[in-house]
Amino acid sequence: MSDRDYYCSVKFRTLKIDLERKTTYNCDAAKPHPINFEWWKNNPGQLFNTEVNVNERRMMLNNQRNSSCEQNCWPAEDRGATSFRILRKGDQRTCSDIEVSPESLDITISSDCNLSCSYCCKEFSSQWRRDILKNGDYKITNGDERYKKNQFDMVLEKLSQNAKLNTPSNQLLNKELELIGPNLKKVMLTGGEPLLNNSLIEIVKNLKKIPKVVLYTGLGVSLSRIDRILKELTTYDNIRLEISAESTDKFLEFNRYGIKWKDFQKRLDLIIASNIELGFTCTLTNLNIFGFKEFYELYKAYPLNIRSAFQPLMMSVHVLDEQSKQHILKEIESLPEDIKMQITNSIKAIPTEQERINIKEFLIEFTSRRKDLSLSIFPKSFLDWIGINHVV
Asked: Rounded CA gap, 208 and 213, in Å?
């Protein structure tokens, strides 16, 4: 037992499935676990109650620190930052049964994506994967597997969208949906970029009995494709579009690489005109927080789900020079208290030397592979601090 609170109700409510990678998560912020398909076949409707998941819930009820939350929440809280657990009020004890049916289901349809967002990786973006397959591994000291190619990446790159969808594992998912569907309050369709999936409307149709279906998008698709999909989506009254973005102009173009700011606005205007419910998920890092205040002022009329990224660690908001931190803290003074407090808590930790070195190594790799990007958009004090003294 520990004096510290290690309970999280999200572990009792939310299941995430990535059939492309054949993994499952008992929370979208946790580490993934491999799916045992033989076990799943013999235990339909129980994917949320695997031995790992049940054991981790038991640990939480006994106030023990479990390993899958070392991905994000525990290290963030160790530094005094506001973790996903706290943001979602997961520390409020609402569940006591270790075998439960999920209320929310997050399905990663595929990694097909036209964007290579700075904090993303090959697991969730085919553009990221192609970059690594074409240009080689990122040279980052102690960098994790997200920046290195492997055999699975090469196999995945050769598979068509239909080949990835028409698999026995997807049949198991459809059966699982039938069994857990009556208890589901929400299904989230993530990627990759769900709007690139040719089966999206069919998937949405099969979810019409779910009270809320949320599609996450970075809008990295053509204007004509979005227009066509919106016409289909307006026939369903349970749809919400969640736009992934948190900065404007050059900062958006840098951190959501693959879409121009003007094109982003045109696509967003189409969605607004469609009257489909929408909101924004803003994932703050040390690279996009410089453009966040302007973004907030533009879209504060809409629901904004604001969270700080903790993976990769070198992109956490606290990995900044002191001058940049003070500038940001002054800039956010006028923001609502909850947002201001979250950013303040996340930014206050002192970065390690390794984190400073790693963000320098990343930026050198990231920009050298994308010739139309310039580091000149960042404050000079930040560039001096990480040791990049010459920018184009």
From this structure: 8
| Residues 108, 19 contacting (CB under 8 angstroms) | yes
pLDDT in tens, 135-168: 999 999 987 889 999 998 998 888 887 777 777 7
Residue with tokens 């491999």: 34
Q: Look up the CATH number of domain 106-386.
A: 3.80.30.10
Sheet strand arrangement including 239-244: 33-34, 23-25, 14-18, 104-108, 186-190, 212-217, 239-244, 277-284, 304-308
Identify the sign of the CA torsion 104, 105, 106, 109. Answer: negative
Q: For residues 244 and 281, is the Cβ–Cβ distance under 8 A?
A: yes
State the pLDDT at residue 389: 80
H and E: helices and strands count for the chain: 17, 11
Compute the residue count for the chain.
Answer: 392
Query: Is the pTM value of this prediction over 0.85?
Result: yes
Angle between helices 261-274 and 223-233 (to 10 degrees): 20
Other beta carbons within 10 angstroms of residue 219's beta carbon come to 24
Strands 116-117 and 256-257: antiparallel
Check if the beta carbon of residue 378 is closer than 8 Å to that of residue 262.
no
CA-CA-CA-CA torsion sign (17, 199, 158, 254):
negative
pLDDT in tens, 52-100: 999 999 999 999 999 999 989 999 999 999 999 999 999 999 988 999 9
C-alpha of 208 from chain center: 24
Q: What is the pLDDT of residue 392?
A: 52
Angle at 182 between CA 179 and CA 183, to 5 degrees: 100
Is residue 171 predicted with pLDDT exceeding 90? Answer: no
Cis ω for the linkage preceding 312 (within 30 of 0): yes
**Nearest CA-CA partner of 50 in 35, 64, 28:** 35
CB atoms inside a 10 Å sphere around CB 152: 13
- Pair 73, 29: CB distance under 8 Å: yes
Strands 14-18 and 33-34: unpaired
Report domain extents, the chain.
9-96, 106-386
Amino acid at 236: Y
Q: Name every residue whose Cβ is closer than 8 Å to that of residue 306 and which is 6 or more positions away in sequence.
A: 246, 282, 284, 339, 342
